[in-house]
Amino acid sequence: MQKNDFQEHILVCLSSSPSNGKIIETAAKMVKAFGGNFTALYVKTTNDAKMSDDDRRRLQNNIALAEGLGAAVTTVYGDDVSYQIAEFARLSRVTKIVIGRSSVKRRHFWSKPTLTEQLSAVAPDIDIHIIPDAAAETKYVRHKSEFTRKLLPNWKDILATVAVLAVATAIGYLFHVLKISEANIITVYILGVLLTSLFTQNYICNVVGAIASVIIFNILFVEPLFSLRVNKDAYVTFAIMFVASLITATLANRLQTNARQSARSAYRTKVLFDTNRLLQSEKNSRQVLCIAAKQIGNLMDRDVVAYHTSGGAATERQLFPSHGSQLSASDFANEDQITQWLFSGSYVGDNIVAYNGCKYYFVGMQGNIYGVLGIRDESGRLDSLENSIIQSVIGECALAIDNIRNAEEKESSALLAKQEQVRVNLLRTISHDLRTPLTSISGNADYLLNSGCDLDESVRKQIYTDIYDDSMWLVSLVENLLSVTRFENGKADMHLTCELAEDIIDETLRHVNRRAVNHHIRSQVDDKLLMARVDTRLILQVLANLIDNAIKYTPDGSDITVSAVRDGDFVRFSVADNGAGIPDELKEKVFEMFYTGNVALADSRRSMGLGLALCKTIVNAHGGEITVVDNVPHGAVFTFTVPFGEVVINE
């Protein structure tokens, strides 16, 4: 038997009705019985701004009930409630709609159909389960007077309506003087009604404007003038004019409302897209929390406070006031109590809750590990759309911080692995490379102790020389190891002074390997007063390593030239030899730590590969660069740059 992949998706409609809780519970029982997805939908209309405090409180309680029963709460905008529900159901593949049936009946045949009738007409392919809602009639009667009071226009809308009627009347009088037909004057008044709809926010002004246009047209431009008496044909004209004006006003008002809703939705979508882009490009977790606070403030036009956390406690508070808002110290008079509550375990992340006596709602990220945001709200509770926006931004913020911390942990792990590899390589290299000189020193010393008296002077001198060379190699090795360790740990102290380049080279040549007598080494400095700003001890070590390498990797009798020239703001030191040179594929690798290549040394002793790596570290610390190129026709030239130095003499 083939498995049925069909899955139920039940949608319950939310409202401020007292009996809406019963409808939500009924839908939850259906979900439990049928299985599948459970969605609670609230359609936010322009009349929601006129909702009473009691209705708003009941709506929030119903939303909380739906969330508690496992529903995914969604908010959409639109004045045509039935269309919004049907369209959402179609896009979300809803199979069943659960809605309350109002006991309010159509009082006249021209009255607007009830919501259940409209929904049945626009969504004929979806099962609609109607639950009686007996409290709706009571609610309508109780709040009818308050609703009527809130429909009254403000003085700005009244002035705009009067101004448009005055202008339309002036234009109509001009047409009347110029003997232009009455049909054109009627068009002017219809245009005036349209402009009234665009310039005002209140529908009553549109209706009053349409009625006033008919009356003014009758008095001023219909015979007999300045009276309301007309012939029978004029009534038809007035009726058509009034209906046209009223329809025009209604359509204009609806278009204006839709435009405002579209603009608001477009702005929120843009801010959400910007939030995602900003969060993904940020590399600092503290800044991620600040970006989330700013974007939530922009989306909701609310004051936001961000608490940075560390070790389960708040370390810093940052304020993000909304446009034109002034945050006062009194808002955080009980901040110590709030932070203690936030991080004491009484409040655990991700849910939006308020602290008693505080004007802010708080939401934590990952159980307060990453931070806590406080959103100012004095109305009593955030609605479902605001809740969804906050949770969306918080989710993106937590994901971005997770990515940053994962990258930091990955980088830290890579660094630890690299350090461990360096340590292993260093131990392996030391264990192999120290064995040869130490064996030579111990063997020669033992030979001198046991048979030194039987040896002639030349043999003893050669043994002494070998012991000295091996010990100096070990000294050089230890110096390089200590220098590498200091630079790796960031503890290398540099003392920059201005020194003559010629003196640096001469001092280096006095301390080079004793085998240098087998090579032709010369220095070349054209400018005797050329000065470099360097740490002399470190640069001497660089030059000594380069010269020692040239001695090791070139046969006896080779020429080695050490030079220094001015190169803009730098001094360029070079060590050139005419040995076998370095292949092109190895030129980039010779400065890597522990790299020695496959070149056999003249004394058959392996090199640890620390010298050139240390040279590069020291030169880079001076702000210079080190390179190696071919020495035509054969050989290699190692070049490094250091800052040029000047001595300022104050008279």
Which SSEs are present, and which pair or pack?
Blueprint: E1 9-13, H1 20-34, E2 37-44, H2 53-68, E3 72-77, H3 81-91, E4 96-102, H4 115-122, E5 127-133, H5 135-142, H6 144-151, H7 155-177, H8 182-199, H9 203-221, H10 232-281, H11 285-300, E6 304-310, E7 313-320, H12 335-342, E8 353-354, E9 360-365, E10 371-376, H13 384-433, H14 435-451, H15 457-488, E11 497-500, H16 501-509, E12 520-525, E13 531-534, H17 536-552, E14 559-567, E15 570-577, H18 611-621, E16 626-630, E17 636-643
Helix pairs in contact: 1-2, 3-4, 7-8, 7-9, 8-9, 8-10, 9-10, 10-11, 10-13, 11-13, 14-15, 15-18, 16-17, 17-18
What does this protein look like?
The structure is a single chain. The chain has 651 residues and is α/β, with parallel strands linked by helices. It folds into 4 domains: 9-148, 3-Layer(aba) Sandwich (Rossmann fold), CATH 3.40.50.620; 153-260, no CATH class; 284-405, 2-Layer Sandwich (Beta-Lactamase); 494-643, Heat Shock Protein 90 (2-Layer Sandwich). It contains 18 helices and 17 strands. The strands form 4 sheets. Strands 3-2-1-4-5 form a 5-stranded parallel sheet, sandwiched between helices. Strands 7-6-10-9-8 form a 5-stranded antiparallel sheet, sandwiched between helices. Helix 8 (182-199) packs parallel to helix 10 (232-281), helix 9 (203-221) packs antiparallel against helix 10 (232-281) and helix 17 packs antiparallel against helix 18 (611-621). The longest helix has 50 residues, at 232-281. Mean pLDDT is 76; it is low at 136-150 and 599-606.
